[in-house]
């Protein structure tokens, strides 16, 4: 079946009149490369499923809130719906039910490649279906066609001093892109709320397409004296074009970017960048403003900057022990870090209770391609000694490494050494998950988010505490 378009009204008519609608929907999903048409077919069914579920269980309690949760950053409170991914404490992240190894196996790849292309993951995140190669390729082509930046955004990026942090530049450019928002224009014109998701979808596709161009421009301006990013090849995938625009043509680096942009895409909805995008979007801010807000959260050292913190710590460790260290030297440095009141960066996670699968897949990538790299060897040896020490300490619920413990080492090996830029890469990837979720927020008609807060005095009074 070739590419075709079908209107929402026509779908509704078909659903009312044709008994074989389910077979039609399955055929549409499996054969079409038109992602928006597939969503238009799926959304009415999901709206009805959620409506029936809320009618049956709207008053059902799903958890209890403790005082520690309220003072502890709302850790563990079940308080939002997030469709693209779920984080299991013992299994790690699952994208629409698929683990990272399953995604590596099942999702489409570039010709000759071994890692999934992010286009395929985005299709999975937004539809719940594993795409065909043709469907993933259609997204690659569409993103290439939508990638051009308006002149005023290019002028903004080229006018910013190079001492402005890359994440500040990234957020500013995304915010200014809000001038192109189809959702904002449709809302101002009075479009019916049932159509909101369609315009959020269009904005999201435009934004994802343009992010590598923004990010590459920032990199070339800040670190490569403003040299141009070159043209996009519409026959290639998103990660290939991004790597080329950055100035990297090593096939291994391009494969790393495919893996990196896939595994950093989503980590359910409670993390700062995801929750912020959802929260700002709930006020019906357009996807550009919502995502820019999320990126301002990602820029924090407790979130997206963490991989940079890990790398700085590893470099400091290596400077002290050299490359011919003993296990005793590593343990001594780690204990000194802990006794000084600092943490071992890259270890522990608010939810996970095992080694982060995102760490594991990067480790497997490194074992195949750079097993003798001194910094990778150091990461591997730290992996052997840190968990037992943190377990012995007795204060850490999760002594295992997370994704940040590994990603910076790989980027360093392939020559992308500018650590201040790493969070921009993270941000390009994170768009896939949070914007897929934003489309569903509007499709399901989720309201503005507004939890109830209490003062300390009010909370104490409610518990009759004196």
UniProtKB/TrEMBL annotation:
GO terms for biological process: carbohydrate metabolic process; citrate metabolic process; tricarboxylic acid cycle. The active site is at 303, 349, 404. It catalyses: oxaloacetate + acetyl-CoA + H2O = citrate + CoA + H(+). InterPro entries: Citrate_synth-like_lrg_a-sub (IPR016142), Citrate_synth-like_sm_a-sub (IPR016143), Citrate_synthase (IPR002020), Citrate_synthase_AS (IPR019810), Citrate_synthase_euk (IPR010109), Citrate_synthase_sf (IPR036969). GO terms for molecular function: citrate synthase activity. The keyword Ribonucleoprotein does not apply. The keyword Metal-binding does not apply. It is found in: Mitochondrion matrix. One of its GO terms (cellular component) is mitochondrial matrix. Keywords: Transferase, Tricarboxylic acid cycle. Pathway: Carbohydrate metabolism; tricarboxylic acid cycle; isocitrate from oxaloacetate: step 1/2. Its main location: mitochondrion. Coiled coil: none annotated. PANTHER family: CITRATE SYNTHASE, CITRATE SYNTHASE, MITOCHONDRIAL. Homodimer. Belongs to the citrate synthase family. This is Citrate synthase. It comes from Sitophilus oryzae (Rice weevil).
